[in-house]
Amino acid sequence: MRYVLGLPMLLALVAATACSGQPVSAVANRIDEASGESLAYAREPVRLLAERPALSRVGKDFLFMAPVMVGGVDTRGRYLWFSIGSSVDRRITGAPIPDIDAIVLVLDGMPMTFDLSEWSAIAAAEPFGPGVEHYASFGAKVTQSQLRRIARTSAMTAYVTNGEHRSPTYALAGGDYAAWSEF
Fold first, then answer.
1. pLDDT along the chain (183 residues), means of 10
2. Are 37 and 125 in contact (CB under 8 A)?
3. Alpha-carbon distance 53 to 112, whole Å?
4. How far is it, in rounded angstroms, from Cα 119 to Cα 107?
5. Is the model's pTM score more than 0.85?
6. Which of 81, 67, 47 lies closest to 183 in space, CA to CA?
7. In sequence order, what are the residues at sequence separation of 6 or more whose Cβ sits closer than 8 angstroms to the Cβ of residue 121?
8. What gap in Å lies between CA 119 and CA 138, rounded to an integer?
9. Which of the four, 87, 136, 151, 164, has the lowest number of CB atoms within 10 Å?
10. Do 69 and 81 meet the contact criterion of CB atoms below 8 Å apart?
11. Residue 163 near residue 101, CB atoms below 8 Å
12. What are phi and psi of 26, to 5 degrees?
């Protein structure tokens, strides 16, 4: 009787071990139950940061981005999702929230500009929670060739602009964008 109980446990262990050797896809999928939209997105966003010592000794502004495929009734397509946040709550410091019309990625010294739409006009659900004080999320239409160009870059920085003013430069702080050409 003892061996009979041990056999299912052994089989479960063997199955788990066999599955653990499978590579994890760079793409995650989910369906927003409220809206019925499907989202396919990179498992981890790219994180860029800009030091903001004028806001605080440890002040940092963050720019998160990831490719997202949206499938829904009203909106379909390939987008770059952008989220703007900060380590400093600007409501407390009185510093203005950046006015943003475009995000410019500088890839190996060459600019790539993205005109923005509010993310809520593209999809009902956010693909990620930024984990810092969050101010706004945007989306920009992106092509397969643009994603391939980003995936091949060896140096990436960014800045945000409203056409009149430009933010400090955001430097790459983490995230894997090499698999973005899969989108």
1. 48 51 69 79 89 64 91 81 78 67 95 93 81 82 94 94 86 89 75
2. yes
3. 27
4. 24
5. no
6. 67
7. 139
8. 4
9. 164
10. no
11. yes
12. -75, -10
